[in-house]
Design goal:
alpha+beta; Trna Endonuclease, Chain: A, domain 1; Arc Repressor Mutant, subunit A; six-stranded mixed sheet; 9 helices; binds iron/sulfur cluster
Length: about 350
Amino acid sequence: MDEPEFLFELRVCRWAERAWPPTGERDAVVVARQLGVRNRRWDTIVLECDSEALDARAVFGEERLDSDLLHVVRNAPGSWAWYRDALPDPGYPWRYVREAVHRAAERGLVETREGTNGRIELRRTYRYPDWVERVVAVENKPDLDASAARALADQLERDVALGLADEVWVATRATGADVEPALYERLPVEAGILAVGESSVDVAWHATSLDTDAPGTRILERPEGADHDRSAARFEYAGPDWKADKRLEIAERAYERGWRSFVDTMRPDCRHFEIRDPDVPLPYCTAKGRHVTSGECRHACPEFSPEPPAWRSKGWPLDGGPGRAIQRLLDDQRARRR
Ligand code: SF4
């Protein structure tokens, strides 16, 4: 049976963490999966980062900064000022900004005090660094047949028109068959193609860098393309500021989650759950005798069997049984990659 897309995706994430970019100089990267905007979710996200700035980002903690916190933290002044004087008009009621200032203070991201007339004043604790250099989106499609290529082409054309990511790629299983180039031709030329083999990943087509600083176009609706279809496409404009904000929000979510968070929705507390190779942590089920997807290994799994209590006391004396140990291992790996 072919490897499911979920496991293929984890392999691509692991490869990207080790080997991105496929050509050129490597600095630091952060890899995550299943993130995006509105109704567009990318399978794999690779953030190319400045390593020093990435270290500086770490002082803000492992948790992401949402858009409201980013507004506060990025604009907090070096010396005490009333928050309404210090922060740019957000375009929404100031009371939400005040709440965000309090949340930021609770997390130690800024300092606050009560100034004259009870006004909330703030000043920054650390300067928020410019840690994300490029955002790369990868769509994983292990089995690229004609209908998958057609659906992908539509999605990728939308990605290219919007220009939210610096590059878009498709990762597909290398088959070596003659059919590959014909399917590749259906994809937009700007999209790169990675051919993923058992032991290596090759670039079958290089991606073109997209202009993320320019206004983008969101394609809302397009004609089906049938002979008698005369309906017009509908577009929406996406300004550079919106794009910059969204890129940073995606990056913050990627920073928090990484790609190993897949285990959070699985059952590592099941006695059949294993991670056989910590280096390429694919979930394995001893009951099924194979790797499993997050769709199979969940609360509703009929074969779920809890870890025996003895496992939690014998040989796993400190913090729970093997399931907890697996989670700790993945959490540690995630923290090290930041
Ligand atoms: S038996 Fe079900 S819950 Fe347990 S590891 Fe296998 S798939 Fe996951």
